[in-house]
Amino acid sequence: MGPRLRRLCAIVLALAIPASGLGSLEWPVAGGAPTRTFGSYLWGRFYPSMTVGPEGAQVRAVAAGDVSFQFDGDKMPSGLPCPLGGFISLSHPDGMISVYAGMDRGSIPRYSRAVSAGDILGRAGASGFRAGRELGFTLFDRIKRQYLNPQVLLPPIRDDRAPLVRGLYLSGGGRILPLGEIRTVRQGTYELLADIQDPFAPGDTSLRAPYSIRLLVDGKETLRYLYDAARAESGRLRFFGPARADSGTAFLPDGKLRLGSVLLARGRTAFVLIVTDYAGNERETGGAFTVE
Amino acid sequence: MRDVDERPNRLLYALISLAFLAYFFAAPEPLRPELTLHPVWAEDVSRAVDPATALEAGGSLSFQLGNRYGAASPDGKRIWSRTADFDAAVSDRLFIPYGRESKSLTAFAPGGETAFRIQAEGWPFFRSGRLFVIAPDMDAISEYSPEGRLLWSYDFPFKISDFDASGSLAVAGLLDGSIECVDSSGKSVFSFAPGGSRIEVVLGVAVDPRGEAVAAVCGADRQRFVLLVRKGGAFKVQYHRYLDSDYREPVTVRFTRDGRYVLYRQSEGIAVYDRETGRESLLPVRAQSFDLDSDQARGLEFLFARTSRSGAVVCFEPPERIIFSYPLPGGALWTRYLDRSLYMGSGTVLGRIDISEE
User: Fold this and answer.
1) Has residue A7 got a pLDDT over 50?
2) Which of residues 170-209 of B touch A (CB under 8 A)?
3) Which value does ipTM take for this structure?
4) Least CB-CB distance to B137: which of A49, A76, A248?
5) Chain A within 8 Å of B143 (Cβ-Cβ)?
6) N or C: which end of chain A has fewer CB within 10 A?
7) How many CB atoms neighbour CB A268 within 10 A?
8) For B115-134, what is each residue's pLDDT tens digit?
């Protein structure tokens, strides 16, 4: 990663914190680490929350606020199933809402009202639509009516490993080809796909999404995904950056991310994919082939 | 002395007699026939038999007791039941058992045969006979046809705290304090934030069976009851009232079948709002949650009240005249009023009580 881009990432993150109205948040699990992050592929679509380990950990309020809603069970009294399981929602000053889901049954204090940062809200457990016992954590800006990426606002985690681009593919004519294996293709419209993960350590298989993705075709930026916020518009959840991708169609069923369509004309075409994580680590990969 | 003492007494008796006569002629209130409860049958539904041999399709009563689901004939002679891995969605026509992390759902007909399979991650439920699936992150709803075809899918702006549907509308209350309404094709009808409270949240929401009114209990510090009514194609606030309650948990809100009354949980009982007169009454029934069934021919409502340990069937004439109250045990409680009979289940026992007029 170049020093200029690293500086740019730091500035973006620094600006995001005061803009949110929450100066400093605490991790909802002390010493916790995200296992799935905002924007990862989960349950067939873009995941606008994060899961935080370790399993069964005590859950803490990320900031001072008021309990606005809590429920301890898998089915609401109205009969509505509650796939969040046991959960608690806190309303913070400046319109922020934090939601802590997948809480252990009976662990949420029943009559809490106001809480301070760091107050224990319960214990992560096996409840709701998840087999694991990790916490599901969501941040929402009620005024802008959008999900916020919690990792942008939470204290940084030590991470010196660059994101992993496990595959970059060209899709067309019913075939999906790894970019590295392509020497020549026919001219036409193709879709670019990517399989990206952000590991913290060697062998780390947690499905974390990166913070940003940039795609350059023949030196020109054609796409930028920025995992900063997501917002439902007309019944479709879209995640931000200039792409405003539709969360329902942004992924293939196997989790490959759609980077968009490109019209390939005759000649030599070069792709560069630049992926950055929250710590500013950057991975650059790409390839070139001939279009016939 | 004696004669003098008796004179005022005679006058008093005469006055009391006159008052009684005046009461009988001036304030007559016809007495409704007395309702009598007759236990008809009670069966242990865990003695499951093959659905195909137990029931013909249709004409049966679907039930759910915890994760056990099944159907019974009204005479209680033919019953089948099965247990779901985790839970089940049950309607008169379909049974959908599901696991905690279901990636696909299989629906069964009352005769036990497979009706359809759908690929959907989430938990199914029925409202007004319509089949919905709520997404695992509780921020999206999909509706499926009775044949299992995806009709629409809607991503709500935030997580859902309550949901209700009529034949034509689907209404979601959200954790950010807004109410979102979607029509039967999955298009947004309105989005409304009641506001007026320091903490914005929707605790309970309901839509009347005709899709003409939406009611909600929302906010904290201060909590409010809000009624929206369709006027000239748009929904507008017709009534609102600040409440003394300070709930931070689900609050049941229900319309009666004719849509005239809205019932919602309060700390002293269940509030009943009459949409025709604009008056509110209170049913002195303590309940953490409740369901409603109507006997429109008799003008009666059956309220199934539940607390964490017990329950009760309360028969009342709206707005607040209680006819009888029948205590129920706690546990997995299922109740339904159908064709002048009460069906009730707890644990693995299902029973029927007929209600006749005498």
Assistant:
1) no
2) 175-177, 182, 186-188, 198-201, 203-204
3) 0.89
4) A49
5) no
6) C
7) 9
8) 999 999 999 999 999 999 99
